[in-house]
Structure formats: C-alpha cells, structure tokens
Amino acid sequence: MALNKKIAIPLTVIILASAAGGGWFMWQKQHSGKATEQKAAQGKQLYTCSMHPFIIKDKPGTCPICGMELIKKIDGATGGEQTAEQKQQADMLGHVSLSPTQRVMANVATVAAKQSTLNKEINAVGIVQYDQSRQAKVTAWIAGRIDKLHVNKVGDVVSKDKPVAEIYSPDLLATQQEYLLAVKSRDQLKNSPIPSIAQNGDGLVASAKQRLMLFGVKESQLAELEKAGKPNIRLPIYTPLSGVVIEKMMQEGQYVNTGEVLFNIADLSRVWVEIDVFENEVPYVRVGQQVEIRSSADAKVATNGRISFVYPFHDPKTHTVKARVEMANAGQHLKPDMFVNAIIKVPLATGIVVPVTAIIDTGKRQVVWVETSPGMFEPRDVQVGERVDQKAQILSGLKSGDKVAVSGGYLIDSESQLKGGGGQDHSKHTGAKPDAKGQQSPATAQQPTQGGHEGHGATPSPQAPAKKSLKMDDMKM
C-alpha cells in the first residue's frame, strides 16, 4: 500500500505537469494565430466607392451601383498623427468624382473663368424733345397788316435767307421816306465848306438808318432802298434760324401789333431725349456718358448720344430722375414727343468673371465647384464683388482659366455632403456635425452603420453622420 502511494504521487504530478504544459502550448498557439490574423486584417487594404461609401470591397474594382472605380478606404488614425498619404486621401473626401454618364444625367456643364470687364447696363425710357437752343419765334417788329404769307402751313421748311411774310406798315413807310430825305440832304451838304453842316447831314442819315434797323430792316434792304430812291410799301420778314414751322399763328390780311408772334420755328437737325432713370441707378449716371437710343418705330436703327445734363429734382410719383441726352438727328428719324428706349453701358470693374449660376450662396458663404481634372470637382470659397445680369465678379478664390460648374452645382454639392465631404458645411473630412466648440459629437462620430454591405455588416459607415451634416435651410435656392 505504501509502495502504491509512492508510485501514484509522482505519477500524478507528472500527469498534471504534462496537462499544464500542453494547455499553455495550445493557448500560446491560439493567441499567436489571433494576433497574426489581426495584424493581417489591419494591413489589408479595403476599397470603397466615392459616390456610395457604404460599398466596401477587399480588392479594387468597380462600384456595382454606379460603375465608378473604387478608391482606397481610409481608416481613422489611431495615434493622432496621419501619414502624408492619409492626409492626401482625407483632403480628397471633399472632392466629387463624376463619370461621363453621371455628368450627362446631372446636366453638369462647365465654363472657364476669364479676365473680363463687367459692364452694368441701365435700361430707361425717354421722350424726344425739341432742342431748346434751336427754337425761335418769328415776330412782328412793327405794327401793320400781313399782306402776304410765304409759309402757309405747319411743317414747312424755312430758311433764314428767305422771307416768310411781307407786312405793310404806315410807320415803316414814313421812316423809309425820312431815310431817303436824309440821304439826299447828306449828298447836298457834304460839299459845304462848313464842317459842322456836312456832319449834320451824316447824323440825319445815321438816325434814320437806326430807326429802320429797329423795325427789322436789314443792311441789304437799306442798300436796295438807296438804289431804288423810293420806299417799299411792304417789308419782308425773315426768320432768325432755318428749320421747320411747328406752329402758325397768323393769316394773310391779319393786322398785328409790335412783338406779336407769327410763327414758331424749330431746327430738328439735333434733338434732346429726356430719359427717366430709376433712383437706384442714378449714382451710375454721369454727364458725358454715351447712350444708345432706339425708337419704337424702328428698333433696328440705333443712334448714339451723350448725357449733357442730369436734372437736380426727383419725381415722387415715378421715383425717377430725368437725364438729358443731346444727339444728332440725321434724316429726322426721331420725331418730337416720340417714345424711345435708352441703353447706358457703365463699366464697373475688371477682374475674374463667372456666370452667376456657378455660385452657391449659403447666406454666409459663397462656394464654387471647380473641375480640377476630368470628372473631379472640388469646392472653393470665393468672395463675390459686383453682380450684373447673369455675371458676377470674383474678388478671390479663383484664377483665370479655372473651369467652374455653371449647372448641376447643387447636385455636386449634395453628393459631397452625402459622402461626408466638404460641400457647403465643410466638416473636416467627416460626416460628424461639430459642436459649439468645433469638436465632433461622440455619439455621431461613433455611430455604427445601419446596414452595411454584405459581408461587412460591422464596418462603420460614414453615410449616417453625413446625413446629419447635410443642412439645406441656409441655402438660397
């Protein structure tokens, strides 16, 4: 019995030691296998789609949904420091890649930003008016009777070298006789040996001549009067300028008083156009600016003039200010009281100019999508200057030659936010919504996927946090 105990105890110890060693060996082997698998899994590169980030593959290929080439999937950095490749890939999260088919379906079109001068075009309406400096009245310089009219109707063309009427006046007839007597007396007294008598003759002629000239008699008529030696019963009346009769007040045989108006004459070779400029556009209007005038009668014919005066008062009913445009009227195509359209082109600024449709305005920032390479778009923050019609001046953020998306920009921006990229909110390479201190919300940053791709159900997906960062309430549509 004692012998059996001596053999059983060592045997038991040996068996226990062997079992412990075997267990330890098996545990080491299993732990080493798991570590190797984890290391292999960590070193294995996964691939995803930039348009559909929930698609995750373990090898390169194409997306089963859109057919785009898969890109390398970026895992979050564990040590806080990122490699250059990781940073470059993280920066690419804000970019959006479109295949030719997607580009056509999204109606994405691009134009090149270019250096240009932005011109503001002011449209106004106006009315043709007479040039007030080219209007005149034909009046009677002496009381009498209109014996003959050479102009019988409104619209007749008159010349200042041809008489428009002839007047009979007893006062004029008597003054002509006095002038003829003074001339005759001067001729008789000019040979007198007494100088004072000869000078008196010249004085009488000068006095009578002055009276006739005050009655509207010209120098040429005085010469004819001296040559004829007898007074003219009817005195011709001339106009002060050549033009068109716009008003006729007298009839043949009518008696008139001194200063009474016979005709109104206007020269239509030049006219005024008074245009109405809205009050918000008045600061752009200056004296000397060129204006293009088109009449409603013939819109194809354009005439150019210049602003000569801006009226210093404002019409409270129409909220406009009048500006006067002086211009030539060759062929008299512009008629007084005719309505016309006026166009004033004001150069505002010179710089980078893009279409307005290329700018996405969130209310706080302006974003433009730039095509950096064929099919690849990146967002750019820009500073917008003047806006005229469908063009905008870019003060910063673009350079000449950059291709910007002028249509489909909102769709590109939506795709960027769906993948957690820059877009309008530009959350730094993640779909997490930053809190008030600029930190990501842990609940959002660690939110698991709500249904991953087959075979990768436990892999976190950026789609859910990207939806949290998508905000459309501050976007101007």
UniProtKB/TrEMBL annotation:
Q: Where is this region: Disordered?
A: 415-477
Recall the GO molecular function terms of this protein's record: transition metal ion binding; transmembrane transporter activity
- Highest taxon of the lineage: Bacteria
Every CusB-like three alpha-helical bundle domain range: 201-231
* Chain ranges of the Heavy metal binding domain: 47-73
Listed GO cellular component terms? Answer: membrane; outer membrane-bounded periplasmic space
GO BP terms: namely: copper ion export; plasma membrane copper ion transport
Family statement drawn from the similarity comment of this UniProt entry: Belongs to the membrane fusion protein (MFP) (TC 8.A.1) family.
> What UniProt keywords apply to this chain's record, in alphabetical order?
Ion transport, Membrane, Signal, Transmembrane, Transmembrane helix, Transport
Q: Does the keyword Repeat apply?
A: no
Give every CusB-like beta-barrel domain span.
270-343
Q: Where is the CzcB-like C-terminal circularly permuted SH3-like domain?
A: 352-412
Q: Where is the composition biased (Low complexity)?
A: 438-451
The membrane-spanning stretches of this chain are: 7-27
Where in the numbering of this chain does the CusB-like barrel-sandwich hybrid domain appear? 136-266
**Identification of the protein by name:** Efflux RND transporter periplasmic adaptor subunit
Enumerate composition-biased segments (Basic and acidic residues). 425-436
